[in-house]
Amino acid sequence: MISPDHHLNEERRIEVTMNRNNPFAIHGITHLSHSSINTWLTDPARFIADKLFGVRDKGSASMHRGTATEFGLSQKYTDEAWEIDLEVVGTKFEQLCQDDLIDVDDERRIKEKENLKEYCNILNKHFDFQNMVDYQKKIEITFDDLPVPLIGYIDFVFEDTIIDLKTTGRMPSKPTDANKRQMALYHMAYPEHQCNVVYASPKAYQTFLIDYEEIKYHQRQIKSVAFGLMKFLAISDDKEELASIIHPNYDSWTWSDYYKEQSSKKIKQWSYK
Question: Is residue 81 over pLDDT 70?
Answer without folding.
Answer: yes
